[in-house]
Amino acid sequence: MFTRIYILKFPKDIVDQPIICQLVRQFDVEFNILKATILPQHEGVMILELRGHKENIKKGLAYLKGLGVKAESVATSIHRDDERCFQCGACTGICPTTALSLKRPQMAVIFDAEKCSGCGLCVTVCPVKAMEVSQERISGFSESAFEVH
Ligand code: SF4
Ligand code: SF4
């Protein structure tokens, strides 16, 4: 599962169309609206988390680009505060990419940042808020935002 956050700007002539629903219907891309400012007859701005197979997200982004939507991608990075983490293991059961795993027999919780997709699920379950999420705007509103690697 590929997850990425985008800031999207919609031209005012299409803000009233059900464009985001088409991402689900046509491209099987799940979405989570983090923030939206959309006024009739004005440019709309939306911060959207997209989830799905990488190829489907590529097609969905190409669809948005074809409609004149401008996009900026946002990188999510997750950091563990090792001072706070008391190795309870609650996050290992929820992590979909095994970036958080239990090392036996020591029962140590290992965090492999290379495997992390930035989904943020561990942030919600950690009882001591040891998992921290930060976001960085990485592409600007440029063509490169539509590229999925
Ligand atoms: S954000 Fe947390 S739960 Fe999600 S993949 Fe990364 S370590 Fe695992
Ligand atoms: S849930 Fe929090 S305290 Fe428990 S192992 Fe994971 S990061 Fe550490």
Structural class: alpha+beta
Q: What Rg, in angstroms, do the CA atoms define?
A: 18 Å
In percent, how helical is the residue content?
10-25%
List the strand order in the largest sheet: 2-3-1-4-7
CATH topology of the largest domain: Alpha-Beta Plaits
Give the overall form.
Answer: elongated
Average pLDDT number:
86
Which ions, cofactors or small ligands are bound in this entry?
Answer: iron/sulfur cluster
Largest sheet: 5 strands, antiparallel
Number of helices: 3
CATH superfamily of the largest domain: ACT domain
Termini separation comes to 13 Å
Low-confidence stretches: none
The amount of beta strand, in percent, is: 25-35%
Overall CATH architecture of the largest domain: 2-Layer Sandwich
Q: H/E element string?
A: EHEEHEEEHE
Please report the total strand number as a whole number.
7
Domain unit count: 2
- CATH domain class of the largest domain: Alpha Beta
Helix and strand arrangement:
Layout: E1 2-10, H1 19-27, E2 30-37, E3 44-52, H2 54-66, E4 70-80, E5 100-103, E6 108-111, H3 121-125, E7 131-137
Antiparallel strand pairs: 1-3, 1-4, 2-3, 4-7, 5-6
Helix pairs in contact: 1-2
The chain binds iron/sulfur cluster (2 copies).
The site of one iron/sulfur cluster has 14 residues, from loops.
What are the main properties of this structure?
single chain; 149 residues; alpha+beta; Alpha-Beta Plaits; 2 domains; two-stranded antiparallel sheet; 3 helices; binds iron/sulfur cluster
